Structures
1.
Amino acid sequence: MNNSENLIPIFPKGEKASADYFVGNVWIKNLIPADETFHMVIGNVVFEPGARNNWHTHPGGQILIATDGTGYYQQRGSPVQIVRKGDVIIISPGIEHWHGASPNSKFTHIAVNPNVQNGIVDWLQKVTDEEYNNI
Ligand code: MN
């Protein structure tokens, strides 16, 4: 692989995500805002190593497309999964979950949120270090 390819991000870094809903440094670039035709929000999300979002659900479901680095994904009641560049995760409406970077790697995914007329996200509690490290 040509290593230099990995050094150039596809999308701008965007805005820093709120510490109310994320642990660590996370950057979100909104790519497609909601409208009355598609009812969909698409964003690019960059997690620094160790960073993750809080537990949450999506009323309309969510699709994550991993584009760089190594991340973690966990559904409530299931083990933490390692997510690699090229993986696609389909999250049904209402499923409690979190996603973020692994401890030693940045992680970037595209987040596709359909059916946003039902709501985009409902935030829950923070992911504890014990939960994060239980892998
Ligand atoms: Mn999510």
Note: The chain is about 5% helix and 45% strand.
2.
Amino acid sequence: MQDKIDSILKYALEKLDAISLADDCQKLRVELLGKSGKVTELFRYIKEVDADQKQKVGQMLNSLKTKLDEMINAKETFLRQEELNKQILSAKKIDITLPTNAKTGSLHPRTIIQKQIEDVFVSMGFVVEDGSEIETEYNNFTAVNVPENHPARDMQDTFWLDNGQVLKTHTSASQNRILKKYNPPIRAIFPGRCFRNENIDASHENTFFQLEGVIVDKDVSVGNLIYFMKEMLSKIFKKEIEVRLRPGFFPFTEPSFEMDIRCPFCDGKGCSICKNSGWIELCPCGIIHPQVLRNGGIDPEKYSGCAFGLGLDRMTMISAGIDDIRELNSGNLKLLKQFKLDL
Ligand code: FA5
């Protein structure tokens, strides 16, 4: 009996060694342990064995059965895991030679408008400057003539940092650095992200964008301001745009104005975009206060300047016909993807 058991074990080992598919383990199990398998056949011999040997032979065959079962199971588990690994790997395989069908992203409408405005100003001899989002109290307020304890500092509800600096509340915070950097004549625009501790509604965000411009030269007047703004607006809206000035107040400009544009959508007849008034409020502007020039190292006796602070979100909303500023930060791709850069 021992010989027979040994020869079945040897056979099973050789077979298992040669098997490379998990399903073949099942076939071997049937061949050895199935109803008419080799081991089952051996069990039939028990009745022919002497009575005093029956128990011993039975134990030998049972342990052979258990051993074979374990060997086949181990090999089957190993092969099944290997097959699974191959499936996972082949699913993850990337063929870098295939053409890509990945969808590319698109520019945000505000970025599109910013680039268009930058292009127009650059074509008129302006440099485009960058500004920091964290500013000193001096740059954000003092340099632009907002004195200590002046209500203007409360007017712009500010995010103050622990170190006494601020999240820039307006792009005017870059004026001083730019005035110091360039000698007149200066023509510069500087777009940037601004932050105010505002209650959010359809026209106010706590994080928004402005695009500021300064012109400093001999005898700069409101006429220069109107000229450059009209040029920019006409290029953006692709038609002549009429503007008007209303009195305003800013500590950094004197006089200060609010510039409105004749509604480019209804040509002033009245529509939903201009709320039937025929005019759209565009941006504050004015003649740079002499103290601001002085703070920037420029002699106000020799030079004068004008400045404007365009709300980029507002300009984007006007151009794209969006009536709620929150849409711009919403990540609503359906809306945002409608706008294409036309360079
Ligand atoms: C200023 O920030 C001035 N520094 C602008 C300026 C520059 C005036 C140079 C004169 C000379 P104001 O707070 O009005 O001004 O903001 C300018 C524009 O930024 C607004 O017309 C508006 O379009 C936009 N703006 C201001 N606050 C918000 C806000 N919370 N959300 C979205 N846009 C805003």
Note: The mean pLDDT is 90.
3.
Amino acid sequence: MDWQTIRLDEVDSTSSFLKRNAAELPHRLVVRADTQTGGRGRLGRKWSSPRGGLYMSLLLRPAPEPEVAALLPLVGAYVICRIFTGQTGVPALVKWPNDVIVPGGKMAGILAEYGGRREPWLVVGFGLNLTDSPRIDRGGGMPAEAWSDYGVPPDPEEAQSFVLEGLDRLWPAGEGNPLPAIRSRVERLLWMRGREVRASVGGMTLRGVVEGLDDLGHLRLYGPEGAAALDSGEIRPEPLESPTTIPGGAT
Ligand code: BTN
């Protein structure tokens, strides 16, 4: 089944637009806007959305199983890493649970939001800095970077096609859990793998070495208290170093 697209010039947030209207809109609808006035990221952060970037949200209705819904941002981040590195030759990594980082900072973020009581739906929003990297903190202490800092970026329409094609390839017909089949490939691109991090989970802090992922996209850490699998949270290098370190990359 193909994706249908609604293109808007300006909207508060493509994800908010879909959430407001989800009950009347069809499965696999994409809303893309040239600019957003109220772009949102995880944890209530603002997502600055100047013209030139990709701001799109996908409506999945009915929603996939909650476990699969939770790991789609990770799969989306992997798709973007592959496209970016394939086109520029520059390493990009998946920052668990939902970001794409390039040597100088964060280039993309993905936000999945669940809703609908009787008929659950999922809205997955993608934000990619293609030409502009606003100098504001987009969360986690990461500076923002744009694709254009590394090469000629696709235009937003092309970027939309790349992302949707990549997603369809890894998750055909949007069925089942796509992660087990690609887990080891995603792990190879996992930021801070084999290194020590500090994880903030709710109000708690946990230290450990990033071992990888499990099939549900949980982050596997091994620390002084043993093994842990995190289903949400945020990680930072421990001890604190440049938050954008890409081993082997041109940081
Ligand atoms: C994050 O990094 O915290 C996720 C950022 C997600 C931003 C995108 S832009 C399109 C869609 N609309 C929004 O308001 N947010 C998402």
Note: The chain has four helices and twelve strands.
